Amino acid sequence: MMNESSTQAAVAARHRTLIVLWGAQLASIGLFALLTILIRNGAANTGNRGNAALTLTFTALGAFVVIVSLLMKQKLVARAIEERSLQKLQTAYVVAFAMCEVGALFGLVDFFITGNPYYYLLFVLGVAGLIINFPKRNDILAAMQANRF
């Protein structure tokens, strides 16, 4: 049985790990944005300009993936707490983070393929999804409390 201070230390360590992973995903989206800024006027953005159907497809897919990340994380976190599984809790968060990054990746693909001037909206959506999916200490604590029984 863990005492209170070791429980708090374990919660803090797990929370720090999730924050580092979250920050890495956020930095990744930032690098995508930087990449597009650096090559915006370059030859790499000469693809199928103005293809509204492709832009709409990428935007819809990106938005769908980010929205699903929110719903899926909520469900997987609840299940992880119910099952008293810290590993499943961490997996729920990592999957949600990755899905938000995929939403931003659709913006990057849209930039390269269509040259859509509003590609960055998917970056914004991906970052918004990450902010909403920020790791909560209470989720970790709930899974840890469940482990005490």
Q: Can you put this structure into words, describing what you see?
A:
- With 149 residues, this protein is mainly α.
- The chain has one domain (4-147).
- The protein contains 5 helices and no strands.
- The chain has helices spanning 4-39, 52-82, 86-114, 120-132, 137-147.
- α1 (4-39) runs antiparallel to α5, α2 (52-82) runs antiparallel to α3 and α2 runs parallel beside α4 (120-132).
- The model has no long low-confidence stretch (mean pLDDT 89).
Number of domains: 1
What proportion of the residues form beta strands (DSSP E)? Answer: under 5%
**What's the alpha carbon Rg, rounded to whole Å?**
19 Å
H and E string: HHHHH
Principal-axis shape equals: elongated
